[in-house]
Give the backbone structure.
Amino acid sequence: MKPSAWDGAAVFVVVCAALIAFDKSTSFGFVFDDDVAVEKNMLVISPNATLTDYLTRDFWGVNMSSKYSHKSFRPLTTLSFRLNYLAERSPRLFHATNVYMHAAVSALLYFVSLFAFKQGRGGAAVASLLFALHPVHTEAVANVTGRSEMMYSLFFAAALLVRVWVDGVDGEQCVTRSVVNGVVVPLLYLLALTSKETAAVLPAFFIAEGVFHHLCARVNESGRGKGEGKSEGRQMRFISTLIQLGGMGVVAIVYSVWRTTVSGGRLTPNITHLDNPLVAVNTTLDYTSIWFVINAYYVRLVMWPSRLSPDYSYSCFPTSLSSPLFPSFFSSSLAWVAAALCVFALALYLAGKRGRTQYVWTALAWYIILMLPASNTFILVGTTVGERLLYLPSFAFCVLIAEFITAVGEWHTTEKKGVGKVQSGKERAGKSGIASRFAKVGGRIGGVVAIAVVVGVAVVMMTASLRAVDMWQNKTTLFEAAAEVCPTSAKVQKALGSNYAHLADVAGGGKKKIEKAEAGSREHALMQKAVHHYRLAVSIKPDFTEAVYELGICELRAGYRDEGRATLRRNLELRPSSYKTFNALAFAYLEDGMMEAALPTFLDCLYYAWDSEAQSEMATNIGNILSTLPPRTPLSRLQSQQGGKASSMTAREAAISYYLLSTRLRPRSADAVFNMGVLYLNSGGSREAAACFAKAVRLNPGEQEYRRALTHAVSQVKAHHSSQK
């Protein structure tokens, strides 16, 4: 098929539709995973990032050999983030790149439909238009992190088009065919692989597509008696496929060896039960049943994306057959799978009447093969369901719908061609007048119906996509929408709590300490919302330690002091060595005037602190508490950090020992030295106080409070000398 002006017009319409549907996202900020993938990713923001870093770190900037690595090796996608960051640090350029990339993929898929699926210009336009407007693509486009889906799709489609182009090259141009097969296709495969690992299945699709093409061609030719003339073409295609698969095999081996090397042999990602509950499923029957429910839900998202969510983690789906949710989920899954089979059967029937069966089977292979890496079939992925993972697989559904609409528009043509029945000359002569008029009328009706269906579906999809894009405006709109779809998700409820706590911080002027919000203020109202969602998260998953800790903090800030302290103590039962929990609980005791409880808690903080700076801070806090006690108070249970029992030590002596410990751990800490000086001054040691204040001034010359304290201490020393004289 030669290029035509109609191709340019169709691509223009498809690109415009994609831009209109998702352009609104360019005004949004970074949300969801973007803070980790972009804002906190050293490969994106660090000026010192080298090529070696891109080749040895994962998509999130973590070293591939680390046990905390997600093992998502996508250097090309990360590099595109870096280029955006260098050009413009605002989110607008990041989002605009995603939107234009989606438009480019949609345009490429027009030609894939035209040349690989042989749908004709009308069918290709319908398939690519539906793909451009499909609401399930919202997460991949509106979320900057979803760029990997579009980048690998771009190279995947380009490789397929090159393969189709090679089949049309004259067999005598051996050099051209060899270079394209052995170099260009493997290069595109490498680019797709380094954009996202899902592209690894490209060779499998090439094989499936080749098998369907060969089998259907043999059937058609045997039925028509024309098998000998095309045997040479099939042989050339087979040789081209072998060369392509050989080149891609070399790329896959090199890629796998490198990835294994930089991962230190650790290829299994760090996936928790909270991210993907399938990790904890024990029996094969439970796993198979839940796998069926999950993949049926993917089918539902492709066919009817009415309610979308960025998160489907624990516990959006049942985790065993004994779950009370399983019967309803299973019955719904059966209904959606049955609906999908009906659509496929209808498309197969209509394609069979037009001699296009192989392309329907190819569309099915497209969906199944591209979904294999994301379906938790052979390997577990970091999520139960991810809408972004349907980005390229959903094109198969668009192809089937285009097949149906095209058949409706061309039904009269099939009758005119006499497919499936050879009429005699007498029969044709007898029916020519009536059949001709009927075909003309039927042709007009079929064309009008097809156009009306396309316009109607496009309008519905456009409206749904615009509505879906709106939920990505900010974290509040995003997770509130997610909570409507999956209110039983612990991560969604925790994310809502974190968001409202952050908004309360902003309303309170950026407070970060554990302070009680004023009742009736906007900060207090937001903090109460945060407490509500944190409590929901903890009720869904009681051992969700991050949610329990943050719930305790928010309860303290919302004025629920007793509940907050109890929640933090419960978190210590879940994580007995949590330094930050000990720290928060100790300050809560301190602010509530519970010195006897605060002191041992600070001692635990000192024990579990992870570095000398944190230990120094805790030693200073302990000294501060001890300095508030009467100087000569005996402390019978206090363990001195110098190694001996402190049974004979007074509060003053113990405070000084902890201040000294703090200065040893962090010699440049002026706060500990200054606080020790205050303790000396209050207990009558003006000379020692003056020495401490002088050292604090040397450590931090710009602090005027230190200078004033030094002047005061020196004046007291002078007064003491004068009184002695």
Q: What stands out?
A: Residues 412-432, 637-647 have pLDDT under 50 and may be disordered. Residues 56 and 262 are 6 Å apart (CA to CA). The first helix runs from residue 5 to 22. The chain is about 70% helix and 0% strand.
